[in-house]
Amino acid sequence: MRDPFPAPLPLVRFFTPLARTLHLRTLPVHVHEILPAFSIYTFASLYIVPRLSTAFFPHTYPALNPRSKRNWDIHAVSLAQSVFICGLAVWVLYSDEERRAMDWRQRVWGYSGGVGCVQGFATGYFLWDLAVCAGDVGSFGWGALAHAGSALAVSLLGFRPFLNYYGLSFVLYELSTPFLNIHWFLDKLDLTGSQLQWYNGIALITSFGASRLVWGTYQSMLMYQDVWRAIQTPNELPVPTWLALAYLGSNTVLGVLNFYWFGKMINTVKSRFEGPKKDNRTDAEKNEQEAVEDSGVGQKDVLRTKSQD
């Protein structure tokens, strides 16, 4: 399948030397998706979201403190991005006949322009996400930074191309992200414990478990099998050890974080509907729970931790 958004030839030529140096052969034909995505998300979080939020929520957004406004802006961008990237990924999943016909060799070393398009837009978001997390690790946490870095690494390695086939599978992690962001906004709009939040919480836990734990683990196992077969089959294109470790290591980090945050997420949703009770937790435990409650999902999408406002 061809990329539905053809790359401008001058841009391809400009980035080709860099791509050759980095051994990312298909990167030049997707730079026109990476750079606009990064720029749009940056501009939206700094200018568009604050203005629209003030217009549509005049009694809520202006009353937030600076940190809460910043988190509001980030969640709004995350919500918009997750809806867009999931829609694009599902469309490519059902439209890309070339991808469906790939054997294990093509799943490891093959390339599809449609999947590359999805990875291009996702890479732009993960680049923005990494910049945001690195700019304020104290607020967002090391877990969020690890997620952003791992997600960006996996996306970039897909442009070698390496495991480009599975890039689309892992983008579908984002299916749970809209519900997570809605959960966060409902808290800020004084709808904590409402029926709407209850239904959204069920959708959040169900979609997170299905897309990240069930689908994600299944796809990871298939990926590990394909890579192992490529390593073990004689006379095949060799898989460099560092490449396998980098990609599989990053994917494993994302998987572990998914399982860890799934438990935290269940506790967070339950806490919205439990009556008041004595809190015997230590300060460290309270801070950890607050970080999860004020969380968002990156790409790349994996649950990120942030400090409660």
Q: What is the approximate shape?
A: globular
Portion in strands = under 5%
Oligomer: single chain
Neighbour order of strands in the largest sheet? 1-2
Give helix % range: over 70%
- H/E series: HHHHHHHHHHHHHEE
Radius of gyration over C-alpha positions, nearest whole angstrom: 20 Å
Number of DSSP helical runs? 13
Largest sheet descriptor = 2 strands, antiparallel
The low-pLDDT segments are 286-309
**Whole-number average pLDDT?**
87
Q: Which structural class do you get from the secondary structure elements?
A: mainly alpha
Number of strand segments = 2
Short recap of the structure:
By secondary structure, the protein is mostly helical. It is 72% helix and 2% strand. It has helices at 9-22, 31-56, 66-95, 97-100, 104-109, 113-135, 137-140, 142-157, 164-171, 177-188, 195-232, 241-271, 283-293; strands spanning 296-298, 302-304.
Describe what you observe in this structure.
- The chain is mostly helical.
- 72% of the residues lie in helices and 2% in strands.
- The protein is built from 13 helices and two strands, in the order H-H-H-H-H-H-H-H-H-H-H-H-H-E-E.
- It has helices spanning 9-22, 31-56, 66-95, 97-100, 104-109, 113-135, 137-140, 142-157, 164-171, 177-188, 195-232, 241-271, 283-293, and strands at 296-298, 302-304.
- Strands 1-2 form a two-stranded antiparallel ribbon.
- The longest helix has 38 residues, at 195-232.
